[in-house]
Amino acid sequence: MAGWMKKAILIGILLALAFGVHWTQEKLDQDRVIHFVDTTPVFLPKGKVLKWFSMGYPSAMADWLWIRSVLYYGRRAMDEDNPYYLYAIEKGNLSKELENVTHRVKSIEQKVSQISPTLAFQSKLQHILFRFDSRGLVNYMYPLLDRVTTLNPHFIFPYIFGGVYLLMDTGEYDQAEALLQKGYRENPDHWQFPFYLAWLRWMYQGDILSAQKYLMEAVGKPSAPEYVYAMLKGIAQETQTVEVTRSYLQSLLSETKSEELRKRIEKLLSELENTK
To answer: Domain boundaries in the chain?
Structure first.
């Protein structure tokens, strides 16, 4: 009898758990249905004020604000797979903003057409570099990222996200470069910042010599990957500045104490020597 009671109780518990899981899933599905799209402005104090409000935990507040920034971007990105965007289009919530996007994209396209076509493959990259799909819909992203990186200046990914990926969607070149420059000032030993600054100058401004300058700084960072060296080599050949590049690398070689960095610089010097 005792054994039967134990089995009955166990079966009852399992049934209750199954019902609870089913009810919870239905509730989550209901909550997931989108009923509105928030288009209200974002108001936040300056980063230094937020740091004071963090009560000694600026990194924790930076993490929280970063998550909020990603959610804000995700809900307003113009993507046919984004349910928030589709709902807003269906309800007509973004008609004025979309009209502004059209005007601003035309302005950007005029600027793009004036860039010196120094790259033979520029036209192939244009659909990636100059999408500008979300221009005007995520106005507050750069101010948000500026506050995140003020709270935690060594939080690397927000700089890269704003300086590269967000730029592709918004076309806000000046704000993207300013964010990367800020990251470079705060994290001078990271190769990513001079590398992506070089990428921006080359791809968006057609300024290949400025890109070369930043790449020469990037190869001086111990953690720079091989493709940074390869990119510098290609630009040196393209601009016929192999000797200038070699001279810089030789001075860098004489100053560095890292054995791994020395090997990489020596390898690049050898490759440049063979291109004469």
So the answer is: 40-187, 189-276
Cβ atoms of 245 and 215 within 8 Å: the answer is no
User: Taking the model in full, what pTM does it have?
Assistant: 0.72
pLDDT in tens, 202-219: 888 888 889 999 999 999
Q: Say which residues have a Cβ less than 8 Å from residue 39's Cβ, sequence separation at least 6.
A: 88, 93, 94, 97
Distance CA 115, CA 178 (A): 20
Tens digit of each residue's pLDDT (9 = 90 or more) over 42-53: 667 677 777 777
Q: pLDDT higher for 109 or 222?
A: 222
Spatial distance between the Cα atoms of 203 and 123, rounded to a whole number of angstroms: 11
Correct CATH for 189-276 of 2.60.120, 1.10.10, 1.25.40, 3.30.420: 1.25.40
Phi/psi for 148 (5° steps) reads -60, -45
